[in-house]
Amino acid sequence: MPHAVDLSQKLSTFDEAFQPRTVGLFNGHDVMVAKLRGDYHWHVHPDTDDFFLVLAGSLEIDLEDGSTVKLGQGQMYVVPRGVSHRPRAHGEAHILLIEPTGTPNSGDPATAAPRRVI
Fold first, then answer.
1. Using CA atoms, how far apart are residues 93 and 77, in angstroms rounded to an integer?
2. Which residue in 7, 40, 72, 89 is deepest, having the highest Cβ count within 10 Å?
3. Termini Cα distance of the chain
4. Is 65 helix (H, G, I), strand (E, B) or coil?
C-alpha cells in the first residue's frame, strides 16, 4: 500500500550536517533532506541547477557575484548551473533538495557525501 513520506521523521534519523539523505525518487532525481549547520564550502555544479527548500530554520546562500539569498521556512531558491555558491546556516536548518541521481553534493565526486537512502 502506498504511504506518505514523513520528512520530520526522516530528519530525526540522523544528526550529521551537510550529509543529505535520499527519501524518494522523482523522474531520475533524488529527493533528499539534509541538516545544515555553519558554513559549507564554496562549490559549483557545472551540469545541474541546485534546488533548496527550507523546511525549518533559515539559510543563506552566498553567490559568486557577491550577493546573498536569504531563505526562511517555506522559501526556496534555485542556484543556476555553473554558479559558484556557499550555503550557510546560523544555528540549524532543515532543507529539501532535488538533484539528478548521482549529483555530488559538493560539486566534486572526490569530496561528495556518499548517497544514503532512508
1. 14
2. 89
3. 18
4. coil
Cβ(22)–Cβ(32) below 8 Å? yes
Look up residue 9 and give its three cell numbers.
521523521
Q: Model confidence over 28-65: pLDDT tens digits?
A: 999 999 999 999 999 999 999 999 999 999 999 999 99
Which helix (H) or strand (E) is 11 found in, with range?
helix 7-11
CA distances from 36 to 3, 19, 24, 39, 43 (A): 27, 8, 20, 8, 15
User: In whole angstroms, how far apart are CA 37 and each of 12, 86, 94?
Assistant: 15, 12, 9
Find out whether 81 and 46 touch, Cβ atoms under 8 Å.
yes
* Distance, CA of 48 to CA of 45 (rounded, Å): 6
What is the pTM for the complete model shown? 0.89
